[in-house]
Amino acid sequence: xxxxxxxxxxxxxxxxxxxxxxxxxxxxxxxxxxxxxxxxxxxxxxxxxxxxxxxxxxxxxxxxxxxxxxxxxxxxxxxxxxxxxxxxxxxxxxxxxxxxxxxxxxxxxxxxxxxxxxxxxxxxxxxxxxxxxxxxxxxxxxxxxxxxxxxxxxxxxxxxxxxxxxxxxxxxxxxxxxxxxxxxxxxxxxxxxxxxxxxxxxxxxxxxxxxxxxxxxxxxxxxxxxxxxxxxxxxxxxxxxxxxxxxxxxxxxxxxxxxxxxxxxxxxxxxxxxxxxxxxxxxxxxxxxxxxxxxxxxxxxxxxxxxxxxxxxxxxxxxxxxxxxxxxxxxxxxxxxxxxxxxxxxxxxxxxxxxxxxxxxxxxxxxxxxxxxxxxxxxxxxxxxxxxxxxxxxxxxxxxxxxxxxxxxxxxxxxxxxxxxxxxxxxxxxxxxxxxxxxxxxxxxxxxxxxxxxxxxxxxxxxxxxxxxxxxxxxxxxxxxxxxxxxxxxxxxxxxxxxxxxxxxxxxxxxxxxxxxxxxxxxxxxxxxxxxxxxxxxxxxxxxxxxxxxxxxxxxxxxxxxxxxxxxxxxxxxxxxxxxxxxxxxxxxxxxxxxxxxxxxxxxxxxxxxxxxxxxxxxxxxxxxxxxxxxxxxxxxxxxxxxxxxxxxxxxxxxxxxxxxxxxxxxxxxxxxxxxxxxxxxxxxxxxxxxxxxxxxxxxxxxx
Length: 704
Description:
It is a single chain. By secondary structure, the chain is of the alpha+beta class. The protein folds into 2 domains: 73-256, Glycoside hydrolase, family 65, N-terminal domain (Beta-galactosidase, Chain A, domain 5, Distorted Sandwich); 260-702, Glycosyltransferase (Alpha/alpha barrel), CATH 1.50.10.10. The strands form 10 sheets. Strands 7-8-9-10-17-14-13-12 form an 8-stranded antiparallel sheet, with no helix packed on it. The chain has a 5-stranded antiparallel sheet with strand order 3-6-11-16-15, with no helix packed on it. It has a 4-stranded antiparallel sheet with strand order 1-2-4-5. The two termini are 48 Å apart.
């Protein structure tokens, strides 16, 4: 992986200010991310757009693929199990396809696929059958199982149920192009490379790298010109034989994924209760988060989340921070590693961008220009630090990260200046409603953080936040016959843009201050009640989750990634925010819809999916370009369930406050293996909506 590229010395702000929006807005710098970069920097102006082999305007479809993930490695397969070299199929490591073709034949024939399923976040299992004996009848008598792992291992097992011994030839045809994933996605991976016999398998070499496949037991024959390995087996009745293939780039040992290490930063939380979907969702979410973990190569103790597979396997700063924030109930180590990694990318002075964390432009839908995720990341940084401290981040680590948080807050105050609103992107962009929510939350939690360590500036931040709140309620709230709504943004001349989108959920995400009390939000009580009604209404709630843009708004597209598709992260934030504000009916409706959608996706939620209306007998439609797994979607599963328990810790004060959802929309729910104040934490919410702590750190007191 590459370290972040510093901004140009000729114009240090141009990359953030003038960079073009990515050609694929959801990809946030797709070509760089696919190469495994650790920065979310805007791709250069000459970067080619990604093209699909079958479509001139999009990515090759991945929504039906079985994607095994153990970053930096992937294995992408179709339901047939055979790797044919078509589309995205293959084993990848650090964004390069090490093996594109792995085609199995037994007794000269291809097994008939009968089952394909994920058996974990990093592995898939394929089963096929065939008739190998001369016995009459249609029944198959050989079962072929293939267990495929993201780490580059595949085990092929033959089971015989024939009444007589069988002599079987197993042939595996292998090939690769050693192409980068970005080239594969664009439909121009290059020709298949010639193979050479190497060790107990085959090897491929190109100017950009090399890879090899070794087999155990060694093959009977190896034909390099055809890329073929061949075994001759004698199977007795009921007998079994296996072959293991290992795909590796040359001069490397076995993959050691961060999520599989004994020192993983995420606690293995579990759920149990009346609704079995809760247990399945949390288990899958934690597995996917483990699979998406990456390690900073220059600082191996620091881990963070890749944005998602297969398109964005590198670090997207805003999403990494948002996901780490939602996973605080699993411990604070991921938050600390993410903060330290991003602090090293922070722009230093002098200059107007000093203190900012770089991030790419992101498409904002049909009504707004692209926004800067660097703005969002810079505002999320002090929020995550303040909240991680309350969940139990050690004081020494908090102090080490405090200077970077101060620089973020100084950037906020310097950028706003004498104005009320923070515009995005800088300079001259609109004043977006969600950006004001991020800024307001950062100011309040940042002030709390500064006060805790005796640093100046807290009073000024609170004063600005109070002025922002007063102005926001007057300027951003637009009246109509239905009770009004918050504007999505104000243009430079002060004109409100009144379309309703999922960005409004950030107005409910106020964070937590001392004593476990919700911070004061930007909206007053009446406005919050109206927003809750709008979010729970049929225009925004599709029945499966929250749409990116209301169904009645101009430009609505059920598959528009920010124009009508269901956004999983925003749905989870809406559930948590509505529940905390007391609007449990609306929160429960969105929660049940997203859980129902999760069932259809095998509990591995994509970052987005089609926003069509849920009806009897309908199913949620996958978005063909969505990442799955995705860091924010997997983290949303954690937030959804922990929000029902209403856990509000204040580790420095030695207290934890519980504010469960009293309507108990999932019935009884137990959560074990969480972490508060550095120790295991378990909680149970009864069918009556009462919360009981079953395990906690010594000395942790229940707050009022």
